């Protein structure tokens, strides 16, 4: 595996130590950073996060991340991985506690997870199957489906179903992962998903 420089963005939305620890088994330099300028030296960029959509966007904006992310990801094409809230922020709009503009990198809307059975609880916390729609990038060397760990109440409804790489059924079907050019994202937490999650992260750092 080619050595890589992984920047993990610390924008005040959750403890990022488990994400950094998950990357530690690879031949990577890991930088958990609060400084947007650190992205200039990174080869791979990770946006994790837990919490509310509006808070996440506000933190990205006031801490100076958005312009640098646009430059490094959208213009330069560096591999990007959004995890949980980091996936949802790619949307056009989020509806958690009001309407909030997202990054709009992948057109769509983030809405509360709909369930049609009172026995199914929201938030969705626990292990669930992800059925793979695309297997040539993040899901290489895995079977046709795999169990991953989720913690969320909202899901991403994309306008273009062609960007979906994984689907999960919990109350209703929802998008578990996305892939568009150099942009990858998972609603589940690969850093908490044992061997399958480590394989996803390994496949990510192989991307160039």
Low-confidence stretches are: none
Binned strand content: 25-35%
Distance between the termini: 11 Å
- Helix and strand run: EHEEHHEHEEEEEEEEEH
Count the E strands.
Answer: 13
- Round the Cα radius of gyration to an integer and report it: 16 Å
Major beta sheet, strand line-up: 2-1-3-4-13-12-11-8-9
Helix content: 10-25%
Average pLDDT: 96
- The number of distinct helices, counting runs of at least 4 residues, comes to 5
Decide which structural class fits the backbone: alpha/beta
Sheet of most strands: 9 strands, mixed
What is the overall shape?
globular
Structural account:
The chain is of the alpha/beta class and 208 residues long. 22% of the residues lie in helices and 34% in strands. It has five helices and 13 strands. Strands 2-1-3-4-13-12-11-8-9 form a nine-stranded mixed beta sheet. A four-stranded mixed beta sheet has the order 6-5-7-10, with helices on one face. A hairpin with a 1-residue loop joins strand 11 and strand 12. The chain is globular. The protein starts with a strand and ends with a helix. The mean pLDDT is 96.
Summed up, what is this model?
The chain is of the alpha/beta class and 208 residues long. Helices cover 22% and strands 34% of the residues. A hairpin with a 5-residue loop joins β5 and β6 (100-101).
């Amino acid at each position: 595996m080619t050595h890589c420089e992984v920047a993990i963005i610390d924008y005040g939305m959750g403890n990022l130590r488990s994400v950094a620890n998950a990357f530690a088994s690879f031949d990577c330099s890991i930088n958990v950073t609060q400084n947007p300028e650190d992205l200039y030296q990174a080869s791979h960029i990770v946006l994790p996060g837990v919490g509310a959509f509006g808070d996440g966007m506000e933190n990205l904006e006031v801490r100076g991340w958005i312009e640098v992310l646009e430059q490094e990801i959208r213009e330069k094409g560096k591999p990007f991985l959004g995890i949980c809230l980091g996936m949802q922020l790619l949307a056009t709009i989020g509806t958690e506690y009001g309407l909030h503009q997202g990054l709009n990198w992948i057109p769509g809307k983030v809405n509360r997870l709909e369930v049609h059975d009172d026995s199914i609880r929201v938030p969705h916390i626990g292990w669930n199957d992800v059925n793979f729609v695309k297997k040539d990038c993040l899901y290489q060397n895995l079977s046709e489906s795999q169990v991953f760990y989720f913690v969320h109440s909202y899901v991403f409804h994309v306008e273009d179903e062609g960007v979906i790489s994984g689907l999960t059924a919990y109350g209703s079907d929802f998008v578990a992962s996305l892939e568009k050019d150099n942009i990858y994202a998972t609603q589940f937490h690969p850093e908490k998903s044992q061997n399958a999650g480590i394989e996803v992260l390994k496949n990510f750092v192989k991307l160039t």
